[in-house]
Amino acid sequence: DVSRIVLLLPGLKDSKATGLLRLKPYLESVGYIVRPLTFGWYLLRGLVWSPFNVPIARLIACFTELLDSLGHEVICIAHSNGAAVTAKASQLGAPFRVLVFINGACERDIKLGDKTGILINCRVPSDPVLAASWILSPISPWADLDASLGNAGVKPNSDQRMWDVDLTEHLGIKGHSGFMAGENVERTGPWLVEALRWALGEQQQPKL
Fold it and tell me: What is 98-164 written as a DSSP string?
């Protein structure tokens, strides 16, 4: 059987992926192997210049290619700036079977690499962190002048591999990290598993 490995990529401040790891029991309940990818708390460097994301993205792309060559299917769940890093890894050729962006701090017209399967874009329209990210748009990858992927969503006529999910409308989630909050994971964890099973072709799309 093909094993499925889920990589967790946190945002700038969550150096130990504490929030995303709250989803781990739900992912392991369906047989996924879950591994966090942590790269330290480098908020100040991230604020100064976006190329700090690039070397991390290269490492993730190489790691993902290695896992793929060993027969594993790779899923990546990324929060905030982790989505910007993962989007770059996708463009560099990382063979992601499924990507999940949670309040992704990246531009709305991102391009996915040819080896990426489906992107599930989970967003909160009122996210206060992403609402302010356009201020840094000239020097960061986090937003266009018309907001981020993680609050305003996928642009019309974008890549058909992207599924846009308004978390507030459908799951009642608010805030930049609400999806992983302890009081919400009993709802978001099972929903995430259903969404992944749909993206992997195992069941119908979850009802919203």
Answer: EEEEES--S-TT----TT--EEEEEE-TT-HHHHHGGGGTTT-SS-BTTB-TTTT-PPTT--TTEEE
How far apart CA 86 and CA 97 sit, in angstroms, is: 13
Distances (CA, A) of 15 to 73, 81, 96, 160: 25, 12, 23, 32
Across the chain, which distance is largest between two alpha carbons, in Å? 47
Q: What is the 3-state secondary structure (H, E, C) of 64-82?
A: HHHHHHCCCEEEEEEECHH
Of 163, 148, 206, 194, nearest in space to 29 by CA: 194
Query: Which tokens belong to 98?
Result: 């499924």
**Burial of residue 119 (number of CB atoms within 10 Å: 0-12, 13-18, 19+):** buried
Closest-CA residue to 151 (of 208, 80, 98, 50): 80
pTM over 0.85: yes
**Residue pair 151/123 in contact by the 8 Å Cβ criterion:** yes
pLDDT per residue as tens digits for the range 55-84? 889 999 999 999 999 999 999 999 998 998
First to last CA, the chain: 31
CB 193 within 8 A of CB 30: yes
Q: How far apart are CA 118 and CA 42, in angstroms?
A: 29
96 beta partners: 74
